[in-house]
Amino acid sequence: MTVLLLLGVSLLNPAAAQTPPALPLPQGRFLQTTVRVGEPLDYELRYAHAPSLEVVFPDSLARFAPFEYAGKTFYPTRTRRGVSLDRAVYHLRTFRLDSVQVLALPVAVLQGPDTLSVAPSPSRVRLRRTAAPLPPGTTALPALRQHLTLEAVPPAFNYPYWLAGVLVGLLLLAGGAALFRQRLVRRYRAYKQRKNHGYFLAQFARHVERFELSRSATNVERAVVLWKNYLAGLENSALNSFTTREIVAYFENDADVRQALSTTDRVIYGNLQTEGAEEVDRAFQRLRGFAERRYASVVG
């Protein structure tokens, strides 16, 4: 009889037979009971529901008044024994002066083309004041106390300005190098030639001194090789591989070069005679004098 009665009620009221079951309510609570103005405050929102439900938690665009949104932490859904649990913690701040402040964040449940908003019971937090309340009957505000002492602020390293300064410095160096490159190259080349010339004169004088002590043709040959190598570097040519005739022709039949090399060739490739020592000394003087004239012409 009861079954027939229920069937009759369903036939008489089809809308009542299609009414969906009531959705469970989410749970919202503040993780602390009191808060000060501007202090961080966490609000936890939990929703236990059937695994088949599609649930959407509030995001940063939701209405958090009287609080201000500062961030959130979501936790993955956990399903146990046919019940899914969604949980999120919202990081808030308040700048209102109400003694008790209330919040109830709703959860959106998607059911086909419809979206249902399910809100938890309101959760309350009490404002913890830092200033003493005014005495009863007092209407005027207390006078403000001035504090004009300067506070020491540690200097901060200004990275953008330093990077900009380094970049400008590099650009100036690059521009200066491009503008004065030829002049710098000439100065460096002159410095290198001056060093090489001083080294040549010192070594050449040493070979001459050794010849005066030993009268050996080996020292004459070493002095001539040194002279050729120095002029080859000074002229930027392969002069050190030339024969005596080719060297004389290269220097346009210069008298000092022709006479000096002719004398040194007779000493190196012939027998050195004691009476020819003065002639060899004059040959050394001609070679050194010619090298100094060529250096002056190249540097000048």
Walk me through the structure.
The protein is α+β, with helices and mostly antiparallel strands and 300 residues long. The chain is built from eight helices and ten strands. The strands form three sheets. It has a four-stranded antiparallel β-sheet with strand order 1-3-6-5, with no helix packed on it. A three-stranded mixed β-sheet has the order 2-10-7, with no helix packed on it. Helix 7 crosses helix 8. The radius of gyration is 52 Å and the shape is elongated. It starts with a helix and ends with a helix. The N terminus is likely disordered.
Total E-strand runs: 10
**Percent of residues in beta strands?**
15-25%
Radius of gyration: 52 Å
User: What level of helicity do the residues show?
Assistant: 40-55%
Residue stretches low in confidence (pLDDT < 50, at least 5 long) are 1-19
Question: Sheet bearing the most strands, described?
Answer: 4 strands, antiparallel
Chain-averaged pLDDT: 84
What separation lies between the terminal Cα atoms?
Answer: 132 Å
Q: What is the quaternary state of this protein?
A: single chain
Question: Order of SSEs, N→C?
Answer: HHEEEEEEEEEEHHHHHH
Global structural class = alpha+beta
- The shape, in one word, is elongated
Strand order of the largest sheet: 1-3-6-5
Q: Total number of helical segments? A: 8
